[in-house]
Structure prediction request, 618 residues.
Amino acid sequence: MTSMQAYLLRRIILLIPTLIGVTFIVFMSVRFLPGDIVDSLAGEFAATPEYRKIIEEQYKLNDNMFTQYFEWLGGIITLDFGDSLLRRAPVNDLLRQKLPATIQLSAMSLTLSVIIAIPVGIISAIRQDSAMDYVGRSFAVASLATPNFWIAIMVITFGFVWFGWTAPIRYVAIWDDPIANLKLFWVPAVILGTSLSGTLMRLTRSAMLEVLRQDYVRTAWAKGLRERAVISQHVVRNALIPVITIIGGRIPTLVGGTVIIETIFTIPGMGRLFFDSIGERDYTTVQAIVIISAVLVVVSNLVTDMTYSIIDPRIRVR
Amino acid sequence: MARESVAAPVITQPWFRRSTGVLRALWRFVRHKPLGTFGAAVGLLMLLTALFADVIAPYGYAEFNIPERLQGPSWDHLFGTDNQGRDVFSRIVYGAQTSVITSFGAVTLAVVMATSIGLISAYYGGLVDLLFQRVVDIWIAFPGLLFIIFLVSILGASQLTLIIVIGFLFMAGSSRLLRSVAMATLAQPYTEAAKAVGARDSRIMIFHILPNMVPIILITVSVEIGAVILIESSLSFLGYGIPPPFPSWGRMLNESQRQMLNQPYLAIFPGLAIALVVYSLNMFGDALRDVLDPRLRGSR
Prediction:
């Protein structure tokens, strides 16, 4: 077995205790909820003893806590998150319904953030300390410092006050009516994309500056290559490798961002489902979303480290 | 780069470079890092505003005056009034308290825990390291804002819950960084020398390794305070911050949404306050990193 394979295997094995820990913490947190689950299910009616018995049997509330945990874990492994507490429907159905909007918003924002960040980062580095560099860097730090929900409110407020523009409320799937769909999505995607681009921009700039100082770049200049050739052939190619691998590391920020942006723009996605379910104390749905996001984070971290270690073998030693 | 440092003997260095006085170091920071100094000044201003909020604010944070509701900026009400006629300027001044208490509390908790975990994990290595790092793995897996909302909704929103939940979440990430710093120090000959003369573990950790972690700890603090202020305002915006009527910049933005047609100004000032403070702290953190991080020394 090569050292690469050994490293890969080690990392994948370490995923197991991490995911068990994550599910256990989420499961236990929900048990510490104040209030009685049967009462909250009964709603405005007081829970009668018969009702209580039915519910307790249905959700197996009287079982040993560990039995409950392993049963639930078994469900998750086979991708069955149980039934929503309040919506009387399998959580899976809800997720299937809400996932497309979130995937679309995330994909659009990530793409936009890359489209903004990489050219600005490159120009900032090759014209270091010029006016363009200062503008680019200020923009990057400003996008890191400005809360995306504030931008969203300002866009909604002044979009209406100045242009009479209001964000569409009705969601249309992209395969039904692409134009109506994009009318809803472009503003939220631009806001989220810009707020994600700050980190990428700073990273692109510093990676570029590092490569620009390398001996082989000096050689390329010395050979008399044109600037265009040096930058595009020798610098950008090498500088973008770490930048591309780190895009996966933006996933946790993206997940938080979709909760906020979907809530403000009433986009029916996972983030909004999470926010609503928390408010309604629908904890089976909440659990499912927290765990799915955690798995997403773990996997994207792993993929980031993997690609990085393939590119730069020194990383593996740690 | 290594050549430069060898070629610069102590004698040829100008006198002020050799001086290690705190005041001189500060003066050098001010001269070489104007943006960082600006950031530190704004941070200090926020701290003072929070400390002396009672003196600075012309009105109470919950002092309502219905006849004067929804006014634009004026001399009586610098930033205007909200839908209950409360003075927006005063509420922003008191809101600084929320930001300062949450961020300082959470970051102190995060950094103290991260330093201890990083130090112990690096020093003992082996099984201790393996166990500690697996716990850190689990914490890192939770997506920040989502998990904080989840925990706050379970524990109930209060100032203390916010500090603990945010503090625990920030602890994981920085403990990795601090562990790697501790490991690098552990590899130095003087740590080995201390072991050889029979120093106790606690002595080596506190007097030999910890001082070397201080620069990175300071950088971590300056970066995380801004990040916590952003998280706190997002939480308040979503309704999971500290409970009303005590003001928080995030919740003021949330409340402004309902008045957006009557009074668009309400959405401007709290957002500006957050952006200015976080921008300044980032600038200060960047400058601090340039000055303190040994890994960047000599890079420019």
Q: What stands out?
A: Chain B touches chain A at residues 134-135, 137-138, 140-147, 149-151, 153-154, 156, 180, 226, 230, 233-234, 237-238, 250, 253, 256-257, 260-261, 264, 267-268, 270-271, 274-276, 278-279, 282-283, 286 (CB under 8 Å). Residues 1-16 of chain B have pLDDT under 50 and may be disordered.
